[in-house]
Amino acid sequence: MNRSVVSIHRLAEQMGLTSRTLRHWESEGLFKSERDTSSGWRVYDEHALSCIRITAILRKIDIPIKDIKSVIANPSLAQLRKVIENKIAEVKQRNAEVVSFQQQLDQVLKFFKQQPEDGFLNLDRILNEMEDIWMSSLQENSLIKIITLPPMRVAYSIAVGTSPEDEAMGPVLEWIKSSNLLSTARFFGGNVKPMPTFAGTPYGYGMCATIPDGISVPGHLKEMVLPGGLFALLESSEDVSLSWKTLMNELAKDKRYKSDQSRLCLEEHIRNDRPDGYGNEYYLNLLEPVKAV
């Protein structure tokens, strides 16, 4: 080998990593090692060392493997900023769920404190009260959630027909697969003009996939930047139209946010690994752009 290389044992010692961790990261496709012909050990060249360093740093702040792949594929400040923004949005959502759970516990504790200390323990009443609290909280929190999406560069395709979704998605998905971007891409769709009217009449649908900066979009696809921002999210049932109505009805009751018609509403397509149990190849998250009231 003409390049300087480091053995797996020396690298593990230098970076405080285990050989098992390095082998796992390599199996995930983050970098490649070579075999030293004399010892048979795995060795790493300068490019692999750079990828390992990036991976080690980002894993310390719990960045997912798929997002680390996007940084390695496109080692730019913009891509690094994007994955950090995604992580911040995830942390905010998790914090909101923790706050909600704490509020549920506070309600239960408040109920307990209202009971006489030396009173008879009425187990049925306590259980009924706790069930009411959990169900009330479930009804409040299981419908729409407010999330933040970062701005995203996307490649997209538009089709018009009586059922144009698959036709719009086909060219985008085919190119994403052929460009080895499937592991990092997020897929979004939405209605475009002509808008849906009556059943059986043609309407427009656009499908897009997120792509890293620096990747050229082929001529048969178009490119734009989704602006991101606040969205009301609802996980769709099989009846997408009914789910959209549910989302908008719930949003109409919300005193904190209202619909922002200056941005596109979206449907995020999340691949379903077990379509037999759901019926469709993709789950749908419905996303309505919102702004503070």
UniProtKB/TrEMBL annotation:
Q: Which UniProt keywords apply?
A: DNA-binding, Transcription, Transcription regulation
Domain of life from the UniProt record? Bacteria
InterPro entries cross-referenced by the UniProt entry: AraC_E-bd, Cass2, DNA-bd_dom_put_sf, MerR-type_HTH_dom, MerR_fam, Reg_factor_effector_dom_sf
In this protein, which residues make up the domain named HTH merR-type?
5-74
Provide the protein name. HTH merR-type domain-containing protein
According to its UniProt entry, this protein's organism is Paenibacillus vini
